[in-house]
TrEMBL record:
Gene Ontology CC entries for this record: cytosol
Record's protein name: Adenine deaminase
CC cofactor note: Binds 1 zinc ion per subunit.
GO BP annotations listed: adenine catabolic process; hypoxanthine salvage; nucleotide metabolic process
Keywords: Hydrolase, Metal-binding, Nucleotide metabolism, Zinc
Length: 337
């Protein structure tokens, strides 16, 4: 087991499901609150951490949007991103595709440009200092209406060459993918990749809608695909990637007992499953902690983790040549271990 843990830690990997706002550690939250003269509803870091107990997705989202309130300036967004890149680098993440939620910021008066310029400054630093590759995925908040998503896409217009794709997050049940069919079609026309959270709390029919109506390129979470076998086999045949997040699932009571996590079943059924951290500051672990949690609770061997790490590159939005180069690095690591 110890050997497997060491092997997992050193595996070169990509992270494909990470909300940058969800990487805001309580320590940085306090630092930014001080810098921006904001009074937090918590007296210290310990009381922040003890507030992180969630019965469902919505209870988490309420706290997560509140935390984001300390982010005000380009420097704040840059510091937030850099803290994540350094941490992910320690987990041997060599490529990452990060989500950001512009509406969380523009709706409280922070200009879109401030968010973008801050994140882009962080990304430039990660690329030059850490040698990581980074892509940006702009998520629409699904509890808001489609017009607000369109307004966000218009704001992003000057930055579209720096944004790889669009996604869909926030409160799933009651906000099906079809609500955003027009804005996703528009994003596709602009050449953007498409992803959506689906089947985390929502039924398998939400995954079907995301695939058939939105035409997504990758499924975020997708846990409940196990409930529709036809959909599962079709997704496997088309090599559809799923960005799964075990510790998130455990903390949000999606899978309270990780021994029941669907990832091993989906892996055996040929789905391109990946392991990611979602909102690591809130769910108690970065990407390697998520790999290790499944190593502990599920029947997965070194070969399975190699396949999962391979999937993280194959499921990425990198050009084929870059994917091949990363797979070479992965193969060399496996060979030399
Ligand atoms: N699900 C939906 N919305 C989110 C999540 C999630 O896991 N994390 C941040 N926003
Ligand atoms: Zn997520």
């Amino acid at each position: 087991m110890n050997n497997l843990i060491k092997f997992i830690e050193g595996l070169p990997k990509a992270e494909l499901h990470l909300h940058i706002e969800g990487s805001l550690e309580p320590e940085l939250m306090f630092e930014l609150a001080k810098r921006n003269n904001i009074t937090l509803p918590f007296k210290d870091i310990e009381s922040v951490k003890s507030a992180y107990k969630f019965n469902n997705l919505q209870e988490f989202l309420d706290i997560y949007y509140q935390g984001a309130n300390v982010l005000r300036t380009e420097e704040d967004f840059c510091d937030l991103a850099m803290a994540y890149f350094y941490r992910a680098h320690r987990d041997n993440v060599v490529h990452t595709e990060i989500f950001f939620d512009p509406q969380t910021h523009t709706d409280r008066g922070i200009p879109f440009n401030v968010v973008m310029n801050g994140l882009l400054a962080g990304i430039a630093k990660a690329e030059s200092e850490l040698g990581m590759s980074v892509q940006l995925i702009m998520c629409f908040l699904r509890h808001l209406d489609e017009e607000s998503a369109f307004a966000t896409l218009r704001m992003a217009e000057p930055f579209l060459d720096k944004i790889t794709g669009v996604g869909l997050d926030s409160s799933e049940v009651g906000n099906p993918p079809s609500k955003f069919r027009h804005v996703f079609a528009e994003a596709r026309k602009k050449g953007l990749k498409l992803v959506a959270h689906a089947g985390e709390e929502g039924a398998a029919s939400y995954i079907k809608e995301a695939l058939d109506i939105l035409g997504i390129d990758r499924i975020d979470h997708g846990n409940r695909i196990t409930e529709d076998h036809l959909l599962l086999t079709k997704a496997a045949r088309s090599a559809m990637a799923l960005t799964m997040c075990p510790l998130s699932n455990q903390k949000l009571q999606v899978v309270p007992d990780l021994r029941n996590h669907p990832l091993p079943y989906l892996l055996r059924h040929g789905l391109r499953v990946t392991i990611n951290s979602d909102d690591p500051a809130y769910f108690g672990g970065y990407v390697n902690d998520n790999y290790k949690a499944l190593a502990k609770y599920c029947d997965l061997k070194a070969d399975d983790f190699i396949e999962i790490a391979r999937n993280s590159f194959l499921g990425s939005f990198l050009p084929d040549q870059t994917v091949s180069a990363y797979l070479d690095v992965l193969d060399k690591y496996v060979d030399s271990f």
